[in-house]
Amino acid sequence: MKLHADRFDVQTISGYGPGWISIDTEKFTHSLIVGSRGERIEWHCRRYEDLTPEHFAQLADLNAEVVIFGSGEKNRFPPPAWLAPLMKRQIGLESMSTQAACRTYNILAGEGRNVVAALLLEESNT
């Protein structure tokens, strides 16, 4: 089996906590779309309940190979009808907690995959 070194010439999520993430050295406290091709787009939602079909249509427009949906502090799934734009373009979506999505994004981006992470950063209760 031939092994290849992970690629770290893509932006990576360097830290996270309740209500924040860091990309390289920049800290964000709002929901965000991060892509292995350099995308950093504010995602206009503060709670899972704020999400609409348009949020997922926006993800389809990025033409990623796979979308990692960080659904906040716990794993939640969007209604299947909202995923139609992604399915039409044959883009996979994986749903998990935002912290798990950060880790998964780093792994896939490091492998050179065309991946987008849509990260819901809910307001911290602390």
UniProtKB/TrEMBL annotation:
Transmembrane segments: none annotated. Pfam families: DUF498 (PF04430). InterPro entries: MTH938-like_sf, NDUFAF3/AAMDC. PANTHER family: NADH DEHYDROGENASE [UBIQUINONE] 1 ALPHA SUBCOMPLEX ASSEMBLY FACTOR 3, NUCLEAR PROTEIN E3-3. This is Mth938-like domain-containing protein.
